[in-house]
Each structure stands twice: as structure tokens, then as C-alpha cells.
Amino acid sequence: MTIYAEIAGADPAGASEAVCARVPGMDFDLVDLRVNVAGRDVWPEGHHLPEEWFRRRLNDYDLWLIWQGSGFFQKNGAPPVPLHRGVRLFLQPGEPCRAWQSEGGQLGVIWIHFDIVHRTKGVRLAPDRLPVFFFDATRTEFFENLANRMVHLWRELPFLDARLRDAGQRLLGLMLRTLLEGYEFDLACAETDDVAGVDRHHRQMVAQALEEFHARYQEIRSISAVAAALGYSPDHFCRIFTDVTGRTPRRALMAIRIDRAKHLLRHSDLSVGAVAEAVGYGSIFPFSKRFKEEVGCSPSAFRVAPPCVGND
């Protein structure tokens, strides 16, 4: 897991600096969370968001959850941070930011615009009471499922009567609170020197391995080679990786390949064989077998199935 926090006033000029540190969390019993709009997008090839877009459009708080693809996000001129599945970004109004995707790595983003208002004072929280800017999690399914449900609920609100709309807005606030509290819980776990017998150095190694998997999933042929590049024996690497993430390196790499394959099957004209090759399989047969085991249907069936099938 990787954490970046923005510490305002870190230097005499008042500039922000990206550092690995903790920002005090919010007291959720003292705030109201108001969802303004929520959506889910797949960026088209070559799409990017310049600073001007953020200056004009980011008028409230924004939570991003990356569910596919790869790219980079830069804030306040700090070094860019990598974007891939599992990354969560917490953005504040008016921040100078820009975002772009890697070549061939179409980003999938769930975004939730909202306000955090002090329950009694009726004002937005001060910056030093907000979550950290960037968090790279190894556990993604719960947050993705909850965020997707929020998007669906938001889209349903206009078709509900006034009473149900009010109830829906309250439910959205509770769901957002769950997302943010989960965010804070994961941060606390990531900062503990010894969680379930795994120290911070090992967690950083696993974060590096995951970045390597996301960047080179098409060409990685040996988990042992990845372990060696990180300075570990294969057995030691696999044991630490499994302790941190709950799954083996091989299964983590396979999940990345299957996620990318699902995207290509739905959003490209590539044949199933070409998709298999594009995500790192040497032939169509092992790819099709693995895909069916993981998704529950063949690649060809997935391509023509309704979008809800396979959680695409």
C-alpha cells in the first residue's frame, strides 16, 4: 500500500509537498456528507484532464476510485502518482491537478462529487481535517461494489417521488460515510508497523510488485523474475505477497489480465485469440479456460452478454 498526504505549509513559502505521512481523520459524527453527483466512466484513447479542467470543474470534493487501466495523476506540481485498479484519490475544490492515462491503458474511473459540511457550523471542513490525497489499496472489491451501487442509486433518484428521493439522498450519505471510514481504516492499517506479522517494508515491496504487474502484465512470464528484481527469493516473495494481499502473486497477476481482457472483449473488435495475446497468454486455450473459471462464462459469451454480467 502506498500513501501520499498533502501537508500544507510544509515550507516557509506555504507550498505543499507530497510526503508519506498521516493527516488527521474526520469525526464523522460531526459532519454531514452530501453527494452532489456520481458517475462511472471509461476514458477514450488519448483522453486527459488538464489543470484548466480542474480549475473550472472541481468546485466541491471529489472521490475517485480507479477500477481499470493505468495512468498518472499530478497535484500541486508534485511528482505524479501512478493510477491503476485499487487507487483512490481524494480531491479538494480548486486544487491545481492534471491526469492522463498510459498508452493503451484506458482508465476506468468511478467519481463521486460531494460536500463535507460541519453539522452545527454549516461550513466545509478545514483542509487539515480531510483524508489524505492518494491511497493505493490491495483490497478493492468491497469499495468498487459500494461505489457502483452509489452510482446506480444516483441515476435512479430523478425517477423517485420526493419522499423516496430524500431517503435516497440520506442513503447516499451513509454509503459515502462507509467509503470514507473504510478509507481511514485502511490508512490506519497501512501505517501500523506490524499488521498481522507484516512490516511496512514488506507492504512497500508488495506495492512495488503490484505496480509492476499493472505496468507489464502483458509480458511477465515468471513470478520468480519479479521476485528476483525486488531482491527476494520466489518462496519468500510469494509468502509475503500472500500475507499482505490475501492472494498469491500468480492470482493477482491473473486478475489484472482478466480485468483487461473483459475490457477488450467489450470495447474492441479484437478476436478472442488476439485478446488472449494482448493480455499475456500464449494461446487461446489456457486463456479461455482461465477466463471461464474466473468470470463464469466463456470470453465469447461474455462479449455478447448484458453489461452487468461479470461485473464489467
CATH class of the largest domain: Mainly Beta
Based on Cα principal axes, name the global outline. globular
The main sheet comes to:
7 strands, antiparallel
Biggest sheet strand order reads: 2-1-11-8-5-10-3
Specify the structural class. Answer: alpha+beta
Query: Rg from C-alpha positions?
Result: 20 Å
* Number of separate helices: 10
CATH topology of the largest domain: Jelly Rolls
Q: Please name the fourth-level CATH homologous superfamily of the largest domain.
A: Regulatory protein AraC
The percentage helix is: 40-55%
Mean pLDDT over the residues: 79
Low-confidence stretches: 1-24, 308-312
**Estimated share of beta-strand residues:** 15-25%
Element-by-element helix/strand order: EEEEHEEEEEEEHHEEHHHHHHH
Q: Please state the second-level CATH architecture of the largest domain.
A: Sandwich
Cα distance spanning the termini: 25 Å
Number of strands: 13
The tally of structural domains comes to: 2
Oligomer state of the chains in this structure: single chain
Key structural traits:
disordered N terminus, alpha+beta, 10 helices, 4-stranded antiparallel β-sheet, about 45% helix, Jelly Rolls, about 300 residues, 7-stranded antiparallel β-sheet
Please explain how this structure is put together.
There is one protein chain. This protein is of the alpha+beta class and about 300 residues long. The protein is about 45% helix and about 20% strand. It has helices at about 50-55, 140-155, 160-190, 200-215, 225-230, 235-245, 250-265, 270-280, 285-295, 300-305, and strands spanning about 1-5, 15-20, 30-40, 50, 60-70, 70-75, 80-85, 85-90, 95-100, 110-120, 135, 195, 200. Strand 12 and strand 13 form a beta hairpin. Helix 2 (about 140-155) runs antiparallel to helix 3 and helix 4 (about 200-215) packs across helix 6 (about 235-245). The longest helix is centred in the middle third of the chain and has 30 residues, at about 160-190. The chain is globular and about 60 Å long.
